[in-house]
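Build the 3D complex.
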Amino acid sequence: MIDSLNLSGRTYLVTGAASGMGRATSILLSGQGARIVLVDINKEGLYNTQQQCTGETYVLEMDLSKPESFKGKVHDTILEFGRLNGFIHCAGIPYISPLKTVSPDICDKVYRINSYSAIELAKLFVNKKVYAGEFGSIVLISSVYGLVGSPANVGYALSKGAIQAATRALAIELAPKGIRVNCIAPGFIKTSMMDNVSSSFSEDYTQRLDALHPLGLGEAEDVANTILYLISDMGKWVTGSILNVDGGFTAQ
Ligand SMILES: NC(=O)c1ccc[n+]([C@@H]2O[C@H](COP(=O)([O-])OP(=O)(O)OC[C@H]3O[C@@H](n4cnc5c(N)ncnc54)[C@H](O)[C@@H]3O)[C@@H](O)[C@H]2O)c1
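Done.
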C-alpha cells in the first residue's frame, strides 16, 4: 500500500453506498483501512455493500430527499461509530425530460437528492461533534452534463451544475478549517443508473455513446480510484477542483 493512500484510523460517510460508484468507493476506501458509514435509501443494497467491505462499517438507511431528518440520524451514528474525517456524496437520481415536460416538482426532488443534501451534510459535518478535526475532505459527484449540454437534460444538468458551483464556494468557506472540498464530473459509467437511463436513448445515440468516450465507457472503480486520490494525503493540496473522469468525453 502506498503510504499516502493509507486511510487507517479515518472514518468517512459515503452516500449512494448501496450501488454503483458509492459501493465501489466504500469497498475501495475500506480496503485502504478506512471505517465507513454506508448511507442509502436502499437497505438491502447497503447490506450487500457491507458484506463486500473488508473493514469496519456502519449501515445508515436514510432518504436524502428529506434533509430535515439528517441531523438526528447522523448524530446518533457519530455517537455510536465515532467522528468523521469526511464524506463522499455519490447518491443521485437521473432526470430525462424535454423542456416542454420539465416539472418544478421533479426538478425540486432531483435537486434535493443530487445537490442540496450535500449542503445539509456539509453543515452537519463541520460541527465539532461530527468532524474529527483532521484530514477533512469532502468529495461531491457531478456529471459531464454539469459541463456540456445534451437534449432533454435540463433538470439533471441544473442539479449537476449546482454541485460544481457549491464545490468552489464550500472549498473557500471551509479551507480555514483545513477541510478540502472537491468534485468529480464522470462521463458514462456502467452502473444501474446508466442501465436505466440508456433504455430511453434512441438506437442512434446508444451506438454513438462509445464513440463519445475515446477511452470507452467507464467503470464505477474508475471514479472510486479518483475519490481515493482526492480524500487521501495524495490530494492534500487540492481543493475546489472539478475533475473530469470521463474517458475523454469533454476533451472533444
Ligand atoms: N452512471 C453514470 O453514467 C453517471 C454519469 C455521471 C454522473 N453520475 C452520477 O454519479 C452518482 C452515482 O451514480 P451511479 O451511477 O453510481 O448510480 P446508482 O444508481 O448505481 O447509485 C445511486 C445510489 O443513490 C441512491 N439514492 C437515490 N435516491 C436516494 C435517496 N433519496 N436517498 C438516499 N439514497 C438515494 C440509490 O439507492 C443508489 O444506491 C450520481 O450522482 C449520478 O448522477 C452517474
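The first strand starts at residue 11 and ends at 15.
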